[in-house]
Every structure is written in structure tokens, then in C-alpha cells.
Amino acid sequence: MTVGPGAPSGPLHGIRVVELAGIGPAPHACLLLAELGADVLRVERPHAGLDDGQSRSRPRLTVDLATEQGRDLVLRLVERADVLVESMRPGVAERLGIGPDACRARNPRLVYGRMTGWGQDGPLAHDPGHDITYAALTGALHVTGPPEQPMPAVNMIADFGGGSMFLVVGILAALLERQRSGLGQVVDAAMVDGAASLLTMVYALHGRGLWRDERRANLVDGGAPFYDTYRCADGRFVAVGALEAPFYAALLEGLGLAGTDFGAGLEPGAHLDPATWPAQREAFTRVFATRTRDEWAAHFAGTQACVAPVLSLTEAPHHPHLVARSTFSTVDGHPQPSVAPRFDRTPGRAPTPSTPAGDEVLRAWGILIGSQS
Fold it and tell me: How much is the pLDDT for 51?
């Protein structure tokens, strides 16, 4: 459930955030903070680049940070803020006069969130990079894709999974700690750190000899035939996730393969034997190719086989379950994901288009244009 954009709601209601606009995970983090109720003011440089949809649900203010006037305005905002978020390369904010020391001299309670690829220190701290770069160095790219070569998973691994999610966690943790100490602190969120953290399970299994160090050779990387996708008669795909024995039994039942012996019988856990995987895959591939994707989706509906249609970006917002939960909202005439997670007493805000900040926004922050107050 979400409430209207103007309603004072969301668990972060009353928290003020200054966002120094960047690209990638930092604006996504600020989008989440805004739709969870925070009062986020996005500060953009003149001639900002293309809006990628992540500046929604908060006003934007154009400020030239290279000028004394622009720097002073940011510092005045900082005096009234709980959080500042920036995603510049290490040292740039300091050179502009809006680094952690300058900001916390104005407001010791400020949580200063820093989002970078490599972190604030280390040999690569000043090098450029993108999601694929950070994923490559942590092992995350190595485990993604077909056996022949690694494949990027869009930019969800390091940018958003390892970046914005960990930045939000860090900010919220620092705000919670501030209740005890009365002081803010710097949150150093590095995509390379977050991407590595997302692999905790994989590294643990690998260390115990339970994860082969190659692609499509393991339970949840497409190596297991009961955790993979299959082409259907119409060229579209279904996803199968029948890991546990009861779900696997339901899968075989639905495919008309119940009682089939793949070399290890159907006793609990026997399907996990990699020696049986080639025969399983051959049978699954053959049977799934006999019906269309939607026919299989209807056939498996209500069963425990963990079979789902692979929906396109056009189709997904219209799926009955996602419609019932309002998982998507309409912003600027197009479907976009709604705020997550959900709260029963303090629901988040409905997404709205990004809007230019007028004088009333600064007045709400206690700043009068042309004054030093």
C-alpha cells in the first residue's frame, strides 16, 4: 500500500536528505529514501544529463557547485539536513568545499553517505569503472552466464545490488546509531564491497567444496536442470526452480515424467546427483518444447512445481499477482516499480515524476533566497 505524494507518510517521514545528483546507484538510493517518506532535495549541476527515471518522487534544484554561491547554498541546506548523499570520485567533494569535514563543521549530526565504485581508499580508488568492472573483480561476474564466457546481469549486481542497497543500509544504520551518540558519521559505500558481500553464500559453499568454480555447474547457476529456463513451443521461456524433493516430484508429475528413473530414482535428494543431470535436462527440454509458454504456465498454476513464465518488461506489470499488489505504478505514462518494502502503519509514497524545485521548497527547508539565514 502506498499513499499520495503529498501525504506526510512513510517510515522516514521527518528525515531530510540533500542529494548531490550523480548517476547509477546513488540516485536509486535517494529514490528509495524519498518514497519511504524522507524529504529529499536533489541538487543538480547545470546542464544535467539525460533523466534515466531515477530522479522521480523528489524536487530537483539546479546549483553550480563550482561557484562560491552554489557551495554556500549546499552548506546552508546541510545545516538543516539529516543526510547528504554524494557519488563523486574520492577527493572531489573536498576540493569543492563540501566534503565531510566542511559539512560536519556546520552540522555534527549529519550522516554523510558516499557512493563510489572502488571505495574511498585502496589502489583503485581513483580509477573509473562500471557495474561490470566491479563485478569482475569480486568474482560476481565469473559465476554469471553460460560456460563459454561470463555475461553481465544488466547492472543489477554491483550498481544496484552492491551499491544502492548497501548505501541505504549504511545510511539507516548511521541514523539509528546517531540516536545513541548524537553524532553523524561518514558512510563509505563501495560497489566492489557490496558485490562481494552478495556472494557470501557462494564463497562459503565454495570453501566447503560444495560449489564448483565454474559457470553452470552448480545448483542455482543454471547447472542443475531443475533450476533453469526452457524454451517452449512458441519460442518463449519458462523458469523452473524445483530444488526441493516435493517440488521436484510436482515438476515430474506436471511434465508426465513421474516414475522416470534418471539413474538415481526419486528418493528425496536423489535428483541432486549431478550424474543424473544430463538425462534430466534432455527430458525436460523435450517435454517443455511441446507446449507454449502460457499453456505451461496455466498447466502448472496452483502446483508446487515452482514453474513460472519468463515475462517481458511489457508483460510483467500486467501479471495478476503484480497488479493485485500494485508492484508497479504509472509514472510519466509508463509503468515503473513501486516503492519497496511495505509498511502497515506508515506506508510509503506513490511514485511521482521529478519536478523542478521552486522557492517554496527552499522555504520549507528554512532558506530564504537572497538571505544568509
Answer: 73
